[in-house]
């Protein structure tokens, strides 16, 4: 037999022909024009999407079953012998979804297959259907039973639905093979696990254990602009005091691993590793109490922080009812990924509107280590 001949790697030009230049443009841009790295990045992107999609699918099943269980009880399905979705209470769009699933199942011509069963009809509904049951129009149903499907959520229907809508948006990005460096993957994955925890702490534990998304994430071949530099008027003081960064809910961040602070006309030398992120966090003592009683260590940390932040002791005032919260490493936690630069990086440009950032900017860790001033970061 002839010896095995290694298969030559596919050329970028071949992939460009197969996928189109516009499809690959974001990947080539992230790779700074390096075609070999762009190809590696595209392949990694597929692995990352696949791993994340597993968690999305797990969440969908957990949520679906939790809602189905509560509706089954509320409508006394076992006593009546009639499935809750056949009682005529849903709107036309929702009912059409069930009718379409039933029609598709009835057309299944595989032998010995039981078609149109209750479980198959339930499993056939898409994520959007379960999300739609949490619309404002179903507030009474939420009050009557659906809140029991998310017993650890704090009981706010709108917050639960908003979180599910964001997961659906993330799922669509995954399915369409978009460049994931434009998404804060850590925040999206944490949202998925948090919703699972709203249903059951056991669900969150299982979902976290059933994935290696963080390992795949760390293998990304394109790691330029992996640090977000945030303007830090009071945020720097809060970080030094408690190791947290707080901003408005839904604020957009790229896929980064670290956070640096621009304060007093310089980028501070401590570059913190982002340990976890929570979005849409209710800024109330009731939520703090609920989180402190959680089985999750991260939730307990967050609950304790909220309770402190709302106390007179903190000295901070808060304008919103919901926030996005980052847990960060602190000085001495180099083993967890904290980075301390040789010194602060001064911003030497002066004048109105000349601040390095009034919101956030992205730079590479490599450039922070070599920059003598923020001028060296302009081209990042």
Characterize the structure shown.
- It is a single chain.
- The chain has 380 residues and is α+β, with helices and mostly antiparallel strands.
- It folds into two domains: 10-219, no CATH class; 223-380, Archaeosine Trna-guanine Transglycosylase, Chain: A, domain 4 (Roll), CATH 2.30.130.
- It has helices at residues 12-19, 21-30, 35-74, 77-80, 92-106, 118-123, 127-132, 139-144, 157-175, 185-199, 201-209, 213-218, 235-242, 285-292, 297-309, 365-370; strands at residues 227-231, 244-248, 258-262, 266-267, 270-282, 322-328, 339-340, 345-346, 360-363.
- The longest helix is centred in the N-terminal third of the chain and has 40 residues, at 35-74.
- The N and C termini lie far apart (53 Å).
Q: In sequence order, what are the helices and strands, one letter per element?
A: HHHHHHHHHHHHEHEEEEHHEEEEH
Instruction: Please state roughly what percent of the residues sit in beta strands, choosing from under 5%, 5-15%, 15-25%, 25-35%, 35-45% or over 45%.
Output: 5-15%
Number of strands: 9
Query: End-to-end span in angstroms?
Result: 53 Å
**Overall geometric form:** globular
Q: What are the segments in which pLDDT stays under 50 over at least 5 consecutive residues?
A: none
**Helix fraction by DSSP (H/I, runs of at least 4):** 40-55%
Put simply, the count of helices is: 16
Indicate the mean pLDDT: 92
Count up the domains: 2
For the largest beta-sheet, the strand count, sense and barrel status come to: 7 strands, mixed
Q: Taking Cα atoms only, what radius of gyration do you get, to the nearest Å? A: 24 Å
Oligomer: single chain
| Helix/strand structural class | alpha+beta
């Amino acid at each position: 037999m002839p010896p095995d001949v290694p298969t030559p790697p596919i050329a970028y030009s071949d992939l460009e022909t197969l996928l189109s230049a516009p499809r690959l443009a974001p990947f080539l841009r992230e790779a700074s024009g390096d075609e070999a790295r762009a190809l590696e990045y595209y392949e990694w992107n597929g692995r990352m999407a696949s791993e994340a999609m597993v968690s999305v699918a797990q969440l969908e099943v957990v949520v679906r079953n939790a809602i189905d269980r509560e509706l089954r009880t509320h409508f006394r399905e076992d006593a009546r012998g009639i499935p809750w979705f056949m009682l005529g209470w849903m709107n036309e769009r929702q009912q059409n979804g069930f009718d379409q699933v039933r029609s598709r199942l009835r057309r299944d011509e595989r032998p010995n297959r039981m078609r149109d069963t209750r479980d198959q009809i339930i499993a056939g509904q898409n994520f959007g259907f379960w999300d739609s049951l949490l619309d404002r129009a179903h507030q009474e149903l939420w009050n009557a039973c659906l809140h029991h499907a998310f017993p650890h959520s704090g009981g706010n229907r709108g917050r639960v639905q908003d979180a599910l809508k964001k997961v659906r948006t993330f799922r669509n990005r995954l399915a369409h093979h978009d460049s994931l460096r434009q998404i804060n993957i850590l925040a999206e994955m944490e949202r998925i696990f948090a919703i699972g925890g709203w249903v059951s702490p056991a669900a969150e534990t299982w979902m976290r254990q059933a994935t290696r998304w963080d390992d795949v994430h760390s293998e990304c071949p394109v790691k330029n602009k992996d640090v977000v530099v945030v303007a830090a008027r009071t945020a720097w003081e809060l970080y030094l005091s408690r190791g947290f960064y707080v901003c408005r809910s839904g604020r957009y961040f790229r896929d980064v691993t670290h956070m640096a602070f621009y304060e007093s006309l310089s980028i501070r030398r401590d570059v913190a590793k982002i340990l976890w992120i929570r979005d849409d966090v209710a800024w109330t003592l009731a939520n703090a109490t609920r989180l402190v009683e959680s089985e999750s260590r991260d939730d307990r940390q967050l609950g304790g922080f909220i309770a402190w932040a709302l106390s007179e002791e903190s000295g901070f005032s808060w304008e919103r009812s919901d926030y996005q919260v980052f847990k960060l490493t602190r000085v001495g936690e180099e083993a967890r990924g904290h980075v301390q630069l040789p010194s602060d990086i001064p911003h030497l440009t002066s004048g109105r509107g000349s601040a390095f950032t009034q919101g956030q900017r992205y730079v590479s860790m490599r450039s922070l280590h070599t920059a003598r001033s923020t001028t060296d970061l302009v081209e990042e």
